[in-house]
Write a structure and sequence with these properties.
Distance between the termini: 28 Å
Order of helices and strands: HHHHH
Helix content: 55-70%
Strand content: under 5%
Shape: elongated
Structural class: mainly alpha
Largest sheet: none
């Protein structure tokens, strides 16, 4: 849940990098909330919940795009790669680029000097 809240706090931050865990945990909680609201709307037969679902989807649209762009930055690509459907999914599943890149430090271990030379810890 902390990853979900972290993305919401960085609502319009399109710079920097987002690691895989941050991206996929936001995606997971977003799906759970969206489907949860929709299922409640169907079970309880309350049309107002469908409106709540639409408002929620609109509210998380910009944070979703922002975390996607930061995820593309983490693998060393421009945020525009998010617009290429299958390739962006492959990139979202790809491990972080080692060390720093032009979008910032590696979020997995930003204080590690070994990241800058591409060596990982055992």
């Amino acid at each position: 849940m902390n990853w979900y809240l972290k993305v919401l706090k960085q609502y319009t931050d399109f710079s920097g990098r987002a690691r895989r865990k941050e991206y996929w945990m936001f995606f997971l909680f977003n799906i759970i909330f969206s489907y949860g609201i929709n299922i409640l709307a169907i079970i309880m037969e309350v049309p107002a919940l469908a409106i709540v679902s639409t408002v929620y989807s609109l509210a998380v649209l910009i944070p979703s795009i922002a975390v996607g762009v930061r995820r593309m930055h983490d693998v060393g690509k421009s945020g525009w790669y998010l617009l290429i459907p299958i390739y962006s999914l492959v990139l979202a599943c790809t491990d972080s680029e080692q060390g720093s890149n032009k979008w910032g430090e590696n979020p997995k271990n930003p204080n590690n000097e070994l990241n800058d030379i591409g060596v990982s810890e055992a």
